[in-house]
């Protein structure tokens, strides 16, 4: 590349931002902690070592602008990068406590000097690039690199070496001459958000971020749902990059306010979702978005948006932001996570208040009428409902009634009907039909209007309590190809058992009526004639082995809960078949069991298989079932 | 001359702002509900994605999707109509239009949170429960109170309106007062409408009743937003006579649980077919803004499609095949996304006048209609297969997945169209009020 082309380009700015983030994230926040653990530094000694890092960070963040009087920004950057690289390499040695203390201080001091110097002079390194884009791209790439599985899952030594190598590469980047820009161009948004507003907002965001990070790192269930596996890591990295670029675009277009608000909503929602491990996956999507949104702002605010008349003033703003929001906010977040093990919803709300104060006050000023009327109606509704509830205290509900409420709460009605249409194909599949009077006795009737799943009005006559429970945990395992979501979370409290009790109550009185109807059922003769044992074996593998194979997942998971452990059909015993039977009779008997299950047991029916499919399963089973007096099973 | 409005009311002046605000709120909820709808359609194709939702499961999001479409998109634009008719968009009351819209939207937002948190009455489209069962009707009552104040203020402020116009407005207020209480009571688990014992769905009589309520709106609304053309219209007079006759028929049918196999049910519902030609004839008796042409044609075509398919799908044999399937989801799309949406946009464009450009971009118009038509065709096909074999949907195969993937694409087109409208409505609200201009009417006889 021609030298003047390099000179006029602005890649150095983005590269330096990315390098600083990589060193901070993968070495200072990650590898060094693991290294200390390996060195046996824990508890109070760990706090002292980490305190030294914070002290170094705060000290140099605040001192960096003053040092600027006696040295060039390029020299200070090189010193910061060299110190950070040296700290990374020193950390590989077998450190005594005192040495660990010194290295920790060096990490903080290097990062303090580096970050403040870089953002104070960022415009000089971004050349023709839009400085917001440079900040966004640098931040996004930095996070993306740290989430590359090869690096994320590497040993602490490899991560430390990577951090150090990146810092050395940073020194090389500074060898390219920067392109100084005339003046410091003010952003339209810079005067609207003063340091007095920005500092608490950034502190609150870093606090939330650090607490969430610490909790995920130290909770195996959350960690496995968020940061494990290469797919997770790549998607995290790409989310970081996309959010960082979005943040840059928003900062340039609309200023700091909407970015901090969006970052809070994403990060705050992630913190609340982390309270419930079943929502950790959604939290893992929102967390990187929120972090990258504010991380770009953390670079762009002091370097581009804050109103500053000189480099020294800009440096002082950056110093306060990184000292207070960066180092102190991070320490507070980790401390809270260590003590509480979770982020209280009230704290998230308080953080939101701090971050959104400018928006809230602006909203109250401009839309006082709207806010007042809305609040008035909402409060009136709330209190009227409280008064109504107080005058009609709810009666304690029986388990079946509670289960019905769960059915309503979960919106089951949107996928399942509870209405068997008389004289239609509904009756043999899900029946018998109920009278309209019986339907009307329900309050409200839960007829529904769409069947993404089967009708449930008689499900209690077709499925056992165990089957229903196992199905709620893992629908596709119990019903091959099922699109129903897992409702395992309902069993963390009484809701799951209540719902099972309710479903068991549906059609419970019709068990015998249904059994009588099934007794006379047999596959169409043409279905038996066209049955294919190989297809039967394939269907058996998909639908039946989960219970009828010695290693079947459902069989192993629920083995102590079955009324009777399902027969391993390769070996028997075949207690429900009354062997020996003539082979054609055996096919019909097995087909009936496959189609409708065995009443009074945990064996379900497979109502959606066609007669031919059921006959194929029956044919294949009749070939492997060993009848008394036969050594090889029946041959048809 | 319009029954409700004066000529100066029809000018596209800066005072169309409350109408634009109402349209913006409606469009906002349309975008949200469509985004949720796309997520739900994607989950039916990739059920593993349900894991991400945690306790905010598919079933809870369905409540959000359905209720936001109904109480957000298909309701809020009509607030603009009410503001205009009762003069709330003029004088001192204009300052409060936005506050009324905020209360309504806040009730919807709070309602969505309550459904996601597992609060529901268990009644489809009437899921309001707990505090929300008071909050939302409360928002409707606030609207009513606001319209009453605007009505009284305008009577004092302006020249006296005609006796007919005043009587019509008072009748409107009486009907509107009943709405919040009706919603509150209808959300009660103890009340349930007549059931067709052979389908589990509504009876022919109840479908006729709700269809006639729509017809009443179709007949009344033009008086509030357009001027009559010169001369008498036979279609107009005939329409009111037919409405009266059908109302008598509806009352005679009663509200019993009656099967659709009864000839009295499907023949009575068939009487609605008369509205296919009558509504276009009725609307041709009014002078419409030139900007409405595209949407007027659209809503009239969708109306014809709705009336015909609604009746056919109720016929014995056909309803038995399609009940509980995607076929009826497709039909509800004809009703809501096809007819109702086109009609609402037509009304808003008429009220906005020149500002109606926000709905007239060719790309969003065709994206929307292509999406709706594709959706209806795909769901009808899926319903046809499903009617023969319920396992078609319950245990998905390649064909079902293909149809659902195409359905997701159709939904994405509609989402993009709604996003386009919302962006343009936002732009419209940012524009400074323009000087009044002459209203360009279509050159129709």
Brief summary:
The complex is a heterodimer of chains A (636) and B (445). Chain A has helices at 3-8, 11-38, 43-67, 73-90, 97-120, 122-126, 131-146, 149-152, 156-173, 195-218, 220-226, 230-254, 256-273, 280-305, 311-340, 345-366, 368-391, 399-409, 426-430, 436-441, 459-462, 465-473, 475-478, 495-505, 511-519, 525-529, 533-543, 545-548, 553-557, 583-596, 611-624.
Word description of this protein:
The complex is a heterodimer of chains A (636) and B (445). Chain A folds into four domains: 8-177 and 193-355, Growth Hormone, Chain: A (Up-down Bundle), CATH 1.20.1250.20; 364-393; 399-516, Cytochrome c-like domain (Cytochrome Bc1 Complex, Chain D, domain 2, Orthogonal Bundle); 521-624, Cytochrome Bc1 Complex, Chain D, domain 2. Chain A is 68% helix and 0% strand. Chain A is built from 31 helices and no strands. Chain A has helices at 3-8, 11-38, 43-67, 73-90, 97-120, 122-126, 131-146, 149-152, 156-173, 195-218, 220-226, 230-254, 256-273, 280-305, 311-340, 345-366, 368-391, 399-409, 426-430, 436-441, 459-462, 465-473, 475-478, 495-505, 511-519, 525-529, 533-543, 545-548, 553-557, 583-596, 611-624. In chain A, helix 4 packs antiparallel against helix 9. By secondary structure, chain B is mainly α. Chain B has three domains: 9-192, Cytochrome C Oxidase, Chain A; 200-287, no CATH class; 288-433. Chain B is 69% helix and 1% strand. Chain B has a two-stranded antiparallel sheet. The two termini of chain B are 15 Å apart. At the A-B interface, helix 14, helix 17 and helix 20 of A face helix 2, helix 3, helix 5, helix 6 and helix 14 of B.
